[in-house]
Amino acid sequence: MTDETENTSVNPEPVADEAAPTPTVLEPPEPPADVVPAPGSMPYRSVPTTQTPVFVTAPLRLETLWGPALSVFGALLWSFVVMGQLVTTFAPGRHDMLLGEGIGVLFVLGASCGVWVRAVRQSLRVSPVAGMAKRVERGLSLGILALLGWALAMALALVGKGAGDGVVTVFLLLVGSASFVYARRFLVNPFAPLAGGSLVLSRALWAGAGLLTFFTLIALGMD
Q: Does 27 map to a domain?
């Protein structure tokens, strides 16, 4: 009896390869609406926004020192010239002067000190300082600069005295008035009332200054 060899080898059927697993992409968690991300920690998908830097400029020296000092200088020079002319001009009849020296001195002090106080307030409003000593220093700086300018104007008047008293007086009037008007461009609120009061009072002061200037020119022509 012959043993029959059975072919037990079975050709295995091809087994399809299993599909490769798809990698899972983890999305970054969205921050809560009420949480503001720290600077420099924005998500990689966010688009950086361009922010305009804010620059804080220091107050100009023209607004804190030179402008206010120029206004005090203008008021001092104008009032000194006006009162100087009216005090030295004879009244009609030539028995007495138009104004007494005491009134002239008080007017110069009042006009100069009033503008000086306002100039100091404007300067401190633009650039505040802490402590009474700093405020006094600011006020003294404005006053000293105005006095130095007045002394320089008087020196120039003495040099140009050969041109005639009338020419020198008109020149000083123009310099004082122009200095005061030009200095108003450096004020915080140039159209505010001069004495810190009502607009009617401010207009009355301007009208009075104009009349005094007009009377000064008339008195100058009477000499």
A: no
- pLDDT, residue 4, reads 47
Residue predicted with more confidence, 134 or 184: 134
92 pLDDT tier (thresholds 50, 70, 90): confident
Q: How many independent structural domains does the chain possess?
A: 1
> In Å, how far from its chain's centre is CA 69?
14
3-state secondary structure (DSSP) of residue 20: coil
Of 149, 153, 156, 20, give the one whose Cα is nearest residue 72: 149
CA distance 78 to 173: 6
> The domain containing residue 87 runs over which residues?
61-222
User: What is the per-residue pLDDT for 105?
Assistant: 94
Domain-located, residue 34: no
Assess if residue 20 is contained within a domain. no
What is the spatial distance between Cα 75 and Cα 58, in angstroms, rounded to a whole number? 28
Torsion of CA 66, 68, 71, 73, to 10 degrees: -60
Confidence of residue 116 (pLDDT cuts 50, 70, 90): very high
Tokens 């010239």 correspond to: 81
Distance from C-alpha of 174 to C-alpha of 183, rounded to nearest angstrom: 14
Angle at 51 between CA 47 and CA 57, to 5 degrees: 170
- Measuring CA to CA, which residue among 128, 99, 125, 115 is closest to residue 212? 99
The answer to whether position 153 is within a domain reads yes
